[in-house]
Write a structure and sequence with these properties.
The complex is a heterodimer of chains A (131) and B (173). Chain A is mainly alpha-helical and 131 residues long. Chain A is 48% helix and 3% strand. Chain A has helices spanning 3-18, 39-53, 81-90, 97-101, 114-130; strands spanning 74-75, 78-79. Chain A has a two-stranded antiparallel ribbon. In chain A, helix 1 (3-18) crosses helix 5 (114-130). Chain B is of the alpha+beta class. Chain B has 2 helices and 6 strands, in the order ββαββββα. Classes of the chains: A mainly alpha (131), B alpha+beta (173). At the A-B interface, helix 2 of A face strand 3 of B.
Protein backbone atom coordinates (compact mmCIF):
# COMPACT_ATOMS: atom_id res chain seq x y z
CA UNK A 1 0.00 0.00 0.00
CA UNK A 2 1.38 3.44 -0.88
CA UNK A 3 1.58 6.26 1.65
CA UNK A 4 -1.17 8.09 -0.25
CA UNK A 5 -3.47 5.09 -0.03
CA UNK A 6 -2.74 4.81 3.68
CA UNK A 7 -3.48 8.53 4.11
CA UNK A 8 -6.86 8.16 2.42
CA UNK A 9 -7.87 5.29 4.68
CA UNK A 10 -6.66 7.13 7.80
CA UNK A 11 -8.66 10.14 6.62
CA UNK A 12 -11.82 8.00 6.39
CA UNK A 13 -11.25 6.62 9.87
CA UNK A 14 -10.92 10.14 11.30
CA UNK A 15 -14.00 11.44 9.45
CA UNK A 16 -15.95 8.52 10.89
CA UNK A 17 -14.59 8.73 14.45
CA UNK A 18 -14.54 12.52 14.85
CA UNK A 19 -17.43 13.65 12.66
CA UNK A 20 -15.23 16.13 10.76
CA UNK A 21 -15.20 16.82 7.00
CA UNK A 22 -12.50 15.16 4.93
CA UNK A 23 -11.02 18.50 3.88
CA UNK A 24 -10.31 19.26 7.56
CA UNK A 25 -8.17 16.13 7.80
CA UNK A 26 -4.87 17.48 6.46
CA UNK A 27 -1.47 15.84 7.18
CA UNK A 28 -0.57 18.57 9.70
CA UNK A 29 -3.91 18.64 11.48
CA UNK A 30 -3.56 17.96 15.20
CA UNK A 31 -6.08 15.41 16.44
CA UNK A 32 -6.93 17.31 19.62
CA UNK A 33 -6.69 21.04 18.86
CA UNK A 34 -7.65 20.96 15.17
CA UNK A 35 -10.01 17.98 14.95
CA UNK A 36 -11.53 18.08 18.45
CA UNK A 37 -10.52 14.56 19.53
CA UNK A 38 -10.99 13.63 23.20
CA UNK A 39 -9.65 10.64 25.12
CA UNK A 40 -12.57 8.35 24.22
CA UNK A 41 -11.99 9.24 20.56
CA UNK A 42 -8.39 7.98 20.80
CA UNK A 43 -9.77 4.58 21.78
CA UNK A 44 -12.31 4.70 18.95
CA UNK A 45 -9.59 5.68 16.43
CA UNK A 46 -7.41 2.80 17.61
CA UNK A 47 -10.27 0.28 17.16
CA UNK A 48 -11.14 1.61 13.71
CA UNK A 49 -7.50 1.50 12.53
CA UNK A 50 -7.34 -2.11 13.66
CA UNK A 51 -10.47 -2.94 11.69
CA UNK A 52 -9.36 -1.00 8.60
CA UNK A 53 -5.82 -2.37 8.36
CA UNK A 54 -6.24 -5.79 9.96
CA UNK A 55 -3.56 -5.49 12.63
CA UNK A 56 -3.76 -5.40 16.46
CA UNK A 57 -2.71 -2.30 18.40
CA UNK A 58 -1.58 -2.88 21.99
CA UNK A 59 -2.34 -0.30 24.68
CA UNK A 60 0.37 2.36 24.66
CA UNK A 61 1.59 1.40 21.19
CA UNK A 62 -0.13 4.18 19.23
CA UNK A 63 -1.02 6.75 21.91
CA UNK A 64 0.64 7.22 25.33
CA UNK A 65 -0.91 5.02 27.95
CA UNK A 66 -1.04 5.40 31.72
CA UNK A 67 1.90 7.82 31.70
CA UNK A 68 0.02 9.97 34.17
CA UNK A 69 -0.03 7.21 36.76
CA UNK A 70 3.71 6.57 37.00
CA UNK A 71 5.64 9.06 39.19
CA UNK A 72 8.91 8.11 37.43
CA UNK A 73 7.51 9.45 34.18
CA UNK A 74 5.40 12.39 35.34
CA UNK A 75 6.22 14.96 38.04
CA UNK A 76 4.06 18.04 38.76
CA UNK A 77 2.27 17.73 35.45
CA UNK A 78 5.51 17.58 33.45
CA UNK A 79 6.93 14.52 31.73
CA UNK A 80 10.38 13.61 33.14
CA UNK A 81 13.46 12.80 31.03
CA UNK A 82 12.87 9.14 31.81
CA UNK A 83 9.25 9.54 30.70
CA UNK A 84 10.31 11.22 27.46
CA UNK A 85 12.84 8.50 26.71
CA UNK A 86 10.17 5.88 27.32
CA UNK A 87 7.67 7.62 25.03
CA UNK A 88 10.23 8.06 22.22
CA UNK A 89 11.16 4.39 22.44
CA UNK A 90 7.56 3.18 22.45
CA UNK A 91 6.29 5.62 19.83
CA UNK A 92 8.87 6.08 17.05
CA UNK A 93 6.10 7.22 14.72
CA UNK A 94 5.71 10.50 16.63
CA UNK A 95 7.99 13.56 16.68
CA UNK A 96 8.55 14.85 20.20
CA UNK A 97 11.21 17.47 19.36
CA UNK A 98 8.91 20.48 19.79
CA UNK A 99 7.10 18.94 22.75
CA UNK A 100 10.41 18.32 24.57
CA UNK A 101 11.00 22.08 24.96
CA UNK A 102 8.04 22.29 27.36
CA UNK A 103 6.91 18.73 28.12
CA UNK A 104 3.58 19.44 29.87
CA UNK A 105 1.45 16.32 30.23
CA UNK A 106 -1.69 18.27 29.37
CA UNK A 107 -0.20 19.17 25.97
CA UNK A 108 1.03 15.75 24.89
CA UNK A 109 -2.02 15.41 22.64
CA UNK A 110 -0.60 18.18 20.39
CA UNK A 111 2.11 15.79 19.17
CA UNK A 112 -0.45 13.63 17.41
CA UNK A 113 -1.09 14.90 13.91
CA UNK A 114 -2.71 12.98 11.06
CA UNK A 115 0.80 12.41 9.65
CA UNK A 116 1.82 10.67 12.88
CA UNK A 117 -1.04 8.21 12.40
CA UNK A 118 0.01 7.60 8.79
CA UNK A 119 3.61 6.99 9.99
CA UNK A 120 2.31 4.49 12.52
CA UNK A 121 0.28 2.56 9.96
CA UNK A 122 3.16 2.53 7.46
CA UNK A 123 5.59 1.12 10.04
CA UNK A 124 3.07 -1.41 11.29
CA UNK A 125 2.23 -2.66 7.80
CA UNK A 126 5.96 -2.97 6.99
CA UNK A 127 6.55 -4.91 10.21
CA UNK A 128 3.74 -7.34 9.43
CA UNK A 129 4.97 -7.72 5.85
CA UNK A 130 8.52 -8.47 6.93
CA UNK A 131 7.59 -10.78 9.79
CA UNK B 1 -40.00 9.21 38.93
CA UNK B 2 -37.30 6.68 38.09
CA UNK B 3 -34.82 7.14 35.28
CA UNK B 4 -35.72 3.81 33.64
CA UNK B 5 -36.12 3.98 29.90
CA UNK B 6 -36.52 0.25 29.35
CA UNK B 7 -39.33 -1.78 30.95
CA UNK B 8 -38.30 -5.37 30.42
CA UNK B 9 -35.37 -7.39 29.15
CA UNK B 10 -36.73 -10.02 26.76
CA UNK B 11 -33.51 -11.67 25.64
CA UNK B 12 -30.01 -11.87 27.04
CA UNK B 13 -27.10 -13.77 25.52
CA UNK B 14 -24.26 -12.97 27.93
CA UNK B 15 -21.39 -11.01 26.37
CA UNK B 16 -23.22 -10.96 23.03
CA UNK B 17 -26.71 -9.55 22.76
CA UNK B 18 -29.57 -8.09 24.72
CA UNK B 19 -33.07 -7.22 23.60
CA UNK B 20 -35.25 -4.96 25.74
CA UNK B 21 -38.59 -3.23 25.28
CA UNK B 22 -40.04 0.07 26.34
CA UNK B 23 -43.76 0.86 26.22
CA UNK B 24 -44.47 4.49 25.43
CA UNK B 25 -47.23 5.76 27.71
CA UNK B 26 -49.42 8.85 27.81
CA UNK B 27 -48.81 8.77 31.58
CA UNK B 28 -45.27 10.03 30.93
CA UNK B 29 -45.20 13.69 32.04
CA UNK B 30 -42.81 15.04 29.43
CA UNK B 31 -45.04 13.93 26.54
CA UNK B 32 -47.47 16.68 27.45
CA UNK B 33 -44.79 19.25 26.67
CA UNK B 34 -43.30 17.29 23.79
CA UNK B 35 -45.25 18.67 22.19
CA UNK B 36 -47.97 20.82 23.74
CA UNK B 37 -50.57 22.68 21.57
CA UNK B 38 -49.42 25.88 19.90
CA UNK B 39 -52.43 28.23 19.82
CA UNK B 40 -50.58 30.91 17.80
CA UNK B 41 -49.82 28.54 14.98
CA UNK B 42 -53.10 26.62 15.39
CA UNK B 43 -51.34 23.36 16.15
CA UNK B 44 -52.86 20.69 18.41
CA UNK B 45 -50.87 18.67 20.95
CA UNK B 46 -48.51 16.12 19.39
CA UNK B 47 -47.01 13.71 21.91
CA UNK B 48 -43.92 12.00 20.48
CA UNK B 49 -41.13 10.08 22.17
CA UNK B 50 -38.03 12.35 22.34
CA UNK B 51 -35.06 10.93 20.43
CA UNK B 52 -32.76 11.76 23.34
CA UNK B 53 -34.72 9.32 25.51
CA UNK B 54 -34.58 6.68 22.80
CA UNK B 55 -30.80 7.04 22.90
CA UNK B 56 -30.99 6.69 26.70
CA UNK B 57 -33.08 3.52 26.30
CA UNK B 58 -30.43 2.06 24.03
CA UNK B 59 -27.69 3.19 26.43
CA UNK B 60 -29.45 1.37 29.26
CA UNK B 61 -29.95 -1.78 27.19
CA UNK B 62 -26.34 -1.83 25.98
CA UNK B 63 -25.01 -0.68 29.35
CA UNK B 64 -26.66 -3.54 31.23
CA UNK B 65 -25.36 -5.98 28.60
CA UNK B 66 -21.81 -4.64 29.06
CA UNK B 67 -22.14 -4.55 32.86
CA UNK B 68 -23.53 -8.08 32.99
CA UNK B 69 -20.51 -9.26 30.99
CA UNK B 70 -18.35 -8.61 34.07
CA UNK B 71 -20.93 -9.51 36.73
CA UNK B 72 -21.53 -5.81 37.44
CA UNK B 73 -18.08 -5.40 38.97
CA UNK B 74 -17.24 -2.54 36.60
CA UNK B 75 -18.75 0.95 36.65
CA UNK B 76 -19.96 1.16 33.06
CA UNK B 77 -20.46 4.72 31.82
CA UNK B 78 -21.64 5.90 28.42
CA UNK B 79 -18.64 7.67 26.86
CA UNK B 80 -19.53 8.30 23.24
CA UNK B 81 -22.54 8.21 20.92
CA UNK B 82 -20.77 7.08 17.76
CA UNK B 83 -23.90 7.05 15.64
CA UNK B 84 -27.57 7.81 16.30
CA UNK B 85 -30.10 7.94 13.53
CA UNK B 86 -33.85 7.29 13.30
CA UNK B 87 -36.35 7.98 10.57
CA UNK B 88 -39.63 7.83 12.48
CA UNK B 89 -41.09 9.49 15.62
CA UNK B 90 -42.64 6.83 17.90
CA UNK B 91 -45.89 7.75 19.64
CA UNK B 92 -47.76 6.71 22.83
CA UNK B 93 -49.20 3.21 22.63
CA UNK B 94 -46.30 1.93 20.57
CA UNK B 95 -43.55 -0.29 21.95
CA UNK B 96 -39.88 0.27 21.24
CA UNK B 97 -37.68 -2.79 20.95
CA UNK B 98 -33.94 -2.24 21.44
CA UNK B 99 -31.42 -4.83 20.25
CA UNK B 100 -27.87 -4.20 21.43
CA UNK B 101 -24.89 -6.33 20.45
CA UNK B 102 -21.32 -6.14 21.66
CA UNK B 103 -18.89 -5.21 18.92
CA UNK B 104 -15.86 -4.96 21.16
CA UNK B 105 -15.26 -5.67 24.86
CA UNK B 106 -12.04 -5.38 26.87
CA UNK B 107 -10.85 -4.16 30.26
CA UNK B 108 -11.09 -0.47 29.28
CA UNK B 109 -14.70 -0.68 28.11
CA UNK B 110 -16.86 -1.68 25.17
CA UNK B 111 -18.31 -0.67 21.81
CA UNK B 112 -21.91 -1.68 21.03
CA UNK B 113 -24.10 -1.70 17.93
CA UNK B 114 -27.83 -1.24 18.23
CA UNK B 115 -31.06 -1.24 16.25
CA UNK B 116 -34.46 0.11 17.25
CA UNK B 117 -37.79 -1.31 16.13
CA UNK B 118 -41.28 0.04 16.65
CA UNK B 119 -44.08 -2.42 17.40
CA UNK B 120 -47.43 -0.90 16.54
CA UNK B 121 -50.24 -2.65 18.41
CA UNK B 122 -53.00 -1.13 16.32
CA UNK B 123 -51.74 -2.65 13.08
CA UNK B 124 -49.51 -5.41 14.48
CA UNK B 125 -46.60 -4.16 12.37
CA UNK B 126 -42.96 -4.25 13.44
CA UNK B 127 -40.58 -1.90 11.66
CA UNK B 128 -36.95 -1.10 12.10
CA UNK B 129 -36.61 2.66 12.52
CA UNK B 130 -32.98 3.35 13.33
CA UNK B 131 -29.48 2.62 14.54
CA UNK B 132 -27.60 3.72 17.66
CA UNK B 133 -23.93 2.75 18.12
CA UNK B 134 -22.25 3.55 21.45
CA UNK B 135 -18.97 3.36 23.34
CA UNK B 136 -18.74 2.70 27.09
CA UNK B 137 -15.88 3.14 29.55
CA UNK B 138 -15.08 1.18 32.68
CA UNK B 139 -14.35 4.29 34.70
CA UNK B 140 -12.36 2.56 37.45
CA UNK B 141 -9.77 1.82 34.72
CA UNK B 142 -9.49 5.48 33.64
CA UNK B 143 -6.03 6.52 32.42
CA UNK B 144 -5.68 9.57 34.60
CA UNK B 145 -5.84 7.51 37.79
CA UNK B 146 -8.86 9.40 39.12
CA UNK B 147 -10.46 7.47 42.01
CA UNK B 148 -14.21 6.77 42.22
CA UNK B 149 -16.34 5.63 45.19
CA UNK B 150 -16.04 1.92 45.86
CA UNK B 151 -19.70 0.93 45.59
CA UNK B 152 -21.11 0.50 42.11
CA UNK B 153 -23.33 3.55 41.79
CA UNK B 154 -24.05 2.77 38.14
CA UNK B 155 -26.04 -0.41 38.69
CA UNK B 156 -28.39 0.47 41.51
CA UNK B 157 -31.60 -1.05 42.83
CA UNK B 158 -33.77 0.01 39.89
CA UNK B 159 -31.60 -1.89 37.41
CA UNK B 160 -31.39 -4.92 39.67
CA UNK B 161 -35.20 -4.98 39.93
CA UNK B 162 -35.47 -4.74 36.13
CA UNK B 163 -33.14 -7.71 35.65
CA UNK B 164 -34.88 -9.79 38.31
CA UNK B 165 -38.45 -9.05 37.17
CA UNK B 166 -37.42 -9.84 33.60
CA UNK B 167 -36.52 -13.32 34.83
CA UNK B 168 -32.75 -13.12 34.68
CA UNK B 169 -30.24 -13.74 37.41
CA UNK B 170 -27.86 -11.11 38.66
CA UNK B 171 -24.37 -12.64 38.46
CA UNK B 172 -22.48 -12.28 41.69
CA UNK B 173 -25.63 -12.48 43.83
Amino acid sequence: MTRDEIFEKVQEVLVDALGVDDDEVTPDAKLTSDLGAESIDFLDISFKLEQEFGFKIAQGELFPDGAAQNPEFVQDGKITDKGLAEMKAKMPHADFSDFEKDPQLAKVGQVFTVDVLVNFVERKLNQTANA
Amino acid sequence: MRWMWIDRIVELVPRERMVAIKNISLAEEHLHDHFSPDAERGLPALPVMPFSLIIEGMAQTAGVLVGHANAFREKVILAKVSKAQIDFDPVPGQTLRYTATIDRLDETGAATLGTIEVIDHASGSVSEIGTIDLMFSHIDRNRSGLPFPKHNFVFGEAFKTLIRTSGFEIPGE
